[in-house]
Amino acid sequence: MDRIKKLVMDRKFFTKVFVSISIVSFIGVISIAFVYQRYFKEVLTSNEIYRVQRSIDQTALNLDNQLYRIVNNVHYFFEYSGNGNRLMALSSADGPEASRDRTWAENALGAFRLQYSSEIESVFFLLRDRADGGRETLYYDAELTPVPEMDYRAQSWYRDFVAGRSNFWSEPTEELLFFQDRSLKTVYLTLSRYDAQGRDGILVVRLNGKMFSDAFRLLATSDLNIELRNGSGAIVYASPTSKEGADTAGDIRMDSHLGHSGFQVQAHIKRTSIDQAVRKIRSIQPYIFVLIVLMTLFISAVLSLSLVRPVKKLLRLMKQAELGDLQVRFNGKFADEVGILGNGFNRMLENMTASIDKAHDAEMQKLNAEMKQKDATLLAMQNQINPHFLYNTLEVINCQAIIHEVPSISRMSKALADFFRYSIDHPKAEVPLAIEAAHVRTYLDIQHERYPDLEIDMDGLAAYGRYPIVKLTLQPIVENAFKYAFAGQRDYYLRIYAEDAGADGYVIHVEDNGEGMEEEALRRLNELLRDPRGHDGGEKGMPAGIGLLNVQHRLRLRYGATYGLSVHESVSGGVDVAIRLPKRGNGDEDPDR
């Protein structure tokens, strides 16, 4: 046994695969031939019935999808596109308005008919104005030519409409109104509306009966009779060889249901025709057997080669990848096991390459974020002018004011020097709120000389003084209030307070009772704040300040997209700028420690 196993396994991979496939194939062919000898007629008969049934089912499905598309388009035209409301509102009186309405209706109905000219023969709309004594107006495509002797009031769809029992699918009918109605027998699609502002209306669509005959034209033969029936059993279409009342006791009946339309296909195939087909196939069985054997040998060879070649190629690519070439890829054409192995090999190399690229991109993003943070802080400091030079100069002015006994100038210059010193004395990007609040108070001391009657309330910040905030966040927002809110001649106030926003965050409010902003301006500003990318940090129309967008950009860089600014109308009609911040910052210190 071991010698036989060794003899087999030592063979080349191609030989083993070819012999294995050939043996399995021959066993299958011989087994099939044996089964055919015993159950040949039954199997072929069943296969023939199954083939015909599948053909009928597929044809029925295609027809059902075609009808479903037409039905959807009719519903869309009348119910959802607004045309139904416009049709129900057409003017039925004489005059220019009625003429314009008729022209519109003709164009709309004509456009819809031409869009489905191969499936729809005519489309028309009947409007009955009950407020005008039941006056009726028939609208149809100007390209349609009415048959003079045809009266629509004598047709079944009209009687159903008047009686209030209109159905979407009409019964099969030979009624027509226009010379363009080519089908001898077909069905109508009707959509009705009753009591719409004192009016009743019905949209009537006549289907082209050729659509049914074309669907079954290739199936219907002298041995296969086909009938299409509606939900109530009435015949919508019958193949030319079908005869109503014919004896079908010896035939095989096959049914297929059209789910969307409710129609049903009934097919009768003569059993004698199947028997004849079976006898013809049986006479060529020996030739088929020989052909199958030859095809088996050929397919065995092709399959063997198709299995061996990709395996060798995959081995060669694996050796290249071992040598460091990660750009190689296996181009598998099939989804078999070898193809799955090749795709797995490709994904492995792609993951390795992606991991390397991802690590590189992460490092570059980190460097880029640090650069943006530094650029934003630098911009903030630049917009605060040159702190070193200015606060040194202001110290000189302060000394001179003390010498010359001008306390107001001394107080102003000292406050301004403290204001600019803030940018230098605190090099970190993040400071406690208490320090940022002290900087704002310095700014407000300076502004108090200009607005001595301004009421300022900052008592609501004391409990949150240890929490972190990005440096130079509050002062630009307060500066905007002085630039835009306090423009009139009345009493103003500025309130700065904080409140909790969950366990991990808090919100600072800068609220004024100034001139406020229009609703549209607030909406646009909040849109900019939600997506500040692409902006340089300053708003249009605010060249002197750091700008809300710059503040938002720095907060997002520091804390992420869930934090930042939002602007609302205050209770007093002014502006309330809400600043959402985390209670734990990104610095080394822990504010809760």
List keywords for this structure.
single chain, 593 residues, alpha+beta, 16% strand, disordered C terminus
- State the share of residues found in helices, binned by percent: 40-55%
Class inferred from helices and paired strands: alpha+beta
Uncertain segments = 536-545, 588-593
Indicate the proportion of strand residues: 15-25%
Outline: flat
Please give the number of β-strands: 15
Terminal CA distance reads 79 Å
Q: Total number of helical segments?
A: 15
Q: Give the overall average pLDDT.
A: 80
Q: Biggest β-sheet, characterized? A: 5 strands, mixed
Computed Rg:
43 Å
Helix and strand pattern: HHHHEEHEEHEEEEHHHHHEHEEHEEHHEE
- Quaternary state reads single chain
Strand order of the largest sheet: 10-12-13-15-14
Description of the structure:
The strands form 4 sheets. The chain has a 5-stranded mixed sheet with strand order 10-12-13-15-14. Mean pLDDT is 80; it is low at 536-545 and 588-593. The protein has 15 helices and 15 strands. It has helices spanning 2-9, 13-80, 83-88, 96-115, 156-163, 210-216, 271-283, 285-322, 337-383, 387-403, 407-425, 433-448, 474-485, 519-530, 548-559, and strands at residues 120-129, 135-140, 188-193, 199-207, 224-229, 235-238, 251-257, 264-270, 430-432, 455-460, 468-470, 493-500, 505-512, 564-569, 575-582. It is an alpha+beta fold and 593 residues long. Helix 2 (13-80) runs antiparallel to helix 6.
Structure in a nutshell:
With 593 residues, the chain is α+β, with helices and mostly antiparallel strands. The chain contains 15 helices and 15 strands. The chain is flat and about 130 Å long.
